[in-house]
Request: fold
Amino acid sequence: MKQTGTRHRARKRAVDLLFEAEAKNVPATQLIAERREIFPTDDSVGQMSEYTVRVVEGYTADAEQVDALITARLENWKLERLPAVDRAILRLATWELLHATDVDIDVVLDEAVILAKELSTDESPSFVNGVLGKIAILAPQVRAAGAAE
Reply:
């Protein structure tokens, strides 16, 4: 059985935070700040990994662009009609595809599918993979443009 790595756990935590933030209608960065404040006296909230913070803050800063990109790649679906966990996975993975240049594109796709298998419906892994596959085509150009800036 494959062991889950540090980055996988960080991604899963990021999906949880994005999901919770949407349910509570608060910025995910607010949840991070609250947990960091609580952690010194109550370690049950768990310490925030650097990668979790990086991707949540990254998505939050680029939410409009990321959501527009996802929406443009959905066929017969609206972003707000997707299961909330699928939205969170798509948002996290799309941000990684565009901005996490230290992570291989195939790794981002694989991780998103694994998260969908672990956290969502039976149909979600193939759906997530299909949407992200369309976005992944753009990723090299976006990453190159970002590196050139």
Observations:
- The chain has one domain: 6-148.
- The domain at 6-148 is CATH 1.10.940.10 (N-utilizing Substance Protein B Homolog; Chain A).
- The chain has a mean pLDDT of 93.
- The two ends are 42 Å apart (CA to CA).
